Structures are given as structure tokens and as C-alpha cells.
Design the sequence.
């Protein structure tokens, strides 16, 4: 049997199925886009291999023999199985009940999940999401094990085994209670403030320069630009006091009810919180780095149709965040050293 299969041309299955359906060499040739002569030659090879006439020419067309009638459903199923194995899998989001697991911080969850759910309700109403926090799990291990479909955050030193795609970018701003009239902040006024910041991993020993590294993947843990903060006040006699470092953003609105406390947060989150709570947003008196939020996945899923759809959907869902990045862009101002600027403001 093995020797027989080694000599068997799988294209003969297409010819057999076409003749069985059409009962005509001419119509079968048109159906599979080959010449009638090629169909006749293929039938001759099949007859020789199977030692059966297979089809008998009659006035009513090519009539199958008993052997062909018995073979036909098995041959058709075999051909369909080959097509399913070779053709790229299709994903129909409108009817899929697939569950996707995404690891993401509370910041990204708050600013992008409403947009993502709107897209899902419209295009994939039966798809379910599982959102996992990305701060207290080993992201690289979870991606390697296939426990999460995508990780969303700010990354550096991304290993080659992971693919990535930028979703949106942000810089830092200050939020305060709306009852506190700060106006435009100078370095001197800013230096007198009490500040709250967010560090997802707290004082984790693995945090270096604001990033925590695991299995070759570095992800941002300190959710404010500490380097820019420290540069702005290097050499200055006075600098703001970081009163509290939180593991998440959720507590900030209630904490900022105390008018003595302010917070440095990503701009997209500030806009959301100001819209929902009695808070005000202020530009910082120094420039911060523009940070990219990206989606991360394992390269083995590069060609997976459901995962490709998920990544495309994440990109479309974050279009509003990309479009509104510079909605509150501040006017250009001269860059002065902290000591010069503080002296000028004195």
C-alpha cells in the first residue's frame, strides 16, 4: 500500500471528483481549468492504478462504476482535508466565540479599552476578552507559554522571538484638584509642589532606569519620566517632593481631592480623568520623553489569522489616541538650564 501511495499523483483526486460531479470530460476540464486531453490522460492513469474502468461512456454521459460510487465520498473528503491543511485558516470575527487574553496596565486599560469594546461590539459581538495586569506577572514567560495573546505596554530590549507594533504615544502632564488655581507652571512654582507618581512594580529590585527586565524583555515600570524630572532640578536649591509612589492609577482621583497633592500622569489618562472628575490638567515646566505604547506577541503567532485580526483591531481601536496626542501641544519655549531659569523667575 505504501508503494502504491508513493506512485499516486494527488492531482488525480481533483480529476476524479470533477468527472464524478460533471459526468463529462469536457465540463470537468472546464471546471478545473485544464484541457479535455489532460482529463482523459488522468482518467487513463487512474484506471491503470486502480484496475477499474471507473467511468463508462454512454449516451447520457460518463456513468460511474460501482467502484467509483463507493470511492467518491471518501475521495471528496480526502481532497477537502488536503485543502484545509494547505489553505491558510480563515477567521470570521462576526461569528467567532474566540476568547483573547491581553496583559495590560490599568493606564492603558482605562484609555484604550472603551474604544476596543466599541469595535468588538460592532464587528465581533461574540468575542470575549480577558484582561490581565501586566505589572505582577512574568510577561516574557506568559508570552512564551502562550498564556496571553498580546501584551500592551512600553517596552525596550525586545527579544527577537517577539513581534511588536506601536499603538500610540504619550508624554507627561500634571493633574491637580480643580479647586487649586495653579495657572501656567514655572520651575519655581513646580518645585513647591507635593507630587504623587505611579510605579507599577514599586521598589522591585529588578527595576533599572524605570524598567523591569525578565527573560530578555524590559518593560516600563515607572510611569513618569524620572530622568527628565531629575534633570529639570539638578543643581537647583529646591525640587518638588515625591510624597507617594502608587502601584496603579485608580486611587489618584480620590487622593487628589486633597488640594495639597498633585500627580504626574500620562497625557491620555489626564484627559480622561479631567473629563470625569473635578480635576485640572497642567503642562509641566520641562519637556518629557515621548513614550510609545506597543502590542507585543510571539513570532510563532505571526501568521495566525485570529491573532492577526486581534493586532489589526488593537491598532484601529487606538487611532483616536494617536490622533489626539498633540491636541494640547504647548507652544515652544526656550530650553534653559534649571539654575538659569530659576534665577530668571526669582
Sequence:
Amino acid at each position: 500500500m505504501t508503494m502504491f501511495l508513493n506512485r499516486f499523483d494527488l492531482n488525480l483526486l481533483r480529476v476524479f471528483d470533477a468527472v464524478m460531479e460533471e459526468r463529462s470530460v469536457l465540463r470537468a476540464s472546464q471546471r478545473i481549468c485544464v484541457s479535455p486531453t489532460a482529463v482523459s490522460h488522468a482518467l487513463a492513469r487512474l484506471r491503470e492504478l486502480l484496475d477499474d474502468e471507473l467511468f463508462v461512456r454512454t449516451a447520457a454521459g460518463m456513468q460511474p462504476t460501482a467502484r467509483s460510487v463507493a470511492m467518491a465520498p471518501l475521495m471528496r473528503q480526502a481532497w477537502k482535508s488536503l485543502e484545509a491543511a494547505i489553505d491558510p485558516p480563515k477567521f470570521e470575527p462576526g461569528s467567532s466565540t474566540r476568547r483573547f487574553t491581553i496583559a495590560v496596565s490599568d493606564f492603558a486599560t482605562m484609555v484604550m479599552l472603551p474604544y476596543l469594546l466599541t469595535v468588538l461590539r460592532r464587528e465581533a459581538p461574540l468575542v470575549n476578552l480577558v484582561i490581565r495586569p501586566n505589572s505582577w506577572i512574568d510577561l516574557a514567560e506568559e508570552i512564551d507559554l502562550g498564556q496571553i495573546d498580546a501584551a500592551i505596554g512600553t517596552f525596550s530590549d525586545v527579544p527577537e522571538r517577539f513581534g511588536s507594533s506601536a499603538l500610540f504615544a504619550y508624554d507627561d502632564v500634571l493633574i491637580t484638584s480643580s479647586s487649586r488655581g495653579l495657572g501656567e507652571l514655572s520651575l519655581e512654582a513646580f518645585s513647591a509642589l507635593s507630587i504623587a507618581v505611579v510605579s507599577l512594580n514599586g521598589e522591585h529590585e529588578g527595576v533599572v532606569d524605570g524598567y523591569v527586565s525578565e527573560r530578555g524583555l524590559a518593560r516600563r515600570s515607572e510611569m513618569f519620566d524620572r530622568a527628565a524630572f531629575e534633570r529639570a532640578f539638578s543643581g537647583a536649591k529646591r525640587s518638588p517632593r515625591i510624597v507617594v509612589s502608587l502601584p496603579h492609577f485608580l486611587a489618584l482621583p480620590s487622593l487628589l481631592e486633597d488640594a495639597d497633592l498633585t500627580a504626574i500622569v500620562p497625557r491620555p489618562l489626564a484627559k480622561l480623568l479631567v473629563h470625569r472628575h473635578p480635576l485640572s490638567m497642567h503642562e509641566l515646566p520641562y519637556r518629557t520623553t515621548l513614550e510609545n505604547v506597543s502590542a507585543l506577541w510571539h513570532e510563532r503567532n505571526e501568521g495566525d489569522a485570529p491573532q492577526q485580526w486581534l493586532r489589526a483591531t488593537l491598532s484601529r481601536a487606538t487611532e483616536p489616541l494617536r490622533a489626539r496626542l498633540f491636541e494640547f501641544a504647548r507652544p515652544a519655549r526656550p530650553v534653559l538650564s534649571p539654575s538659569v531659569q530659576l534665577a530668571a523667575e526669582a
In short: Residues 2-86 form a domain with the Arc Repressor Mutant, subunit A fold (CATH 1.10.10.10). Confidence is low (pLDDT under 50) at residues 328-346.
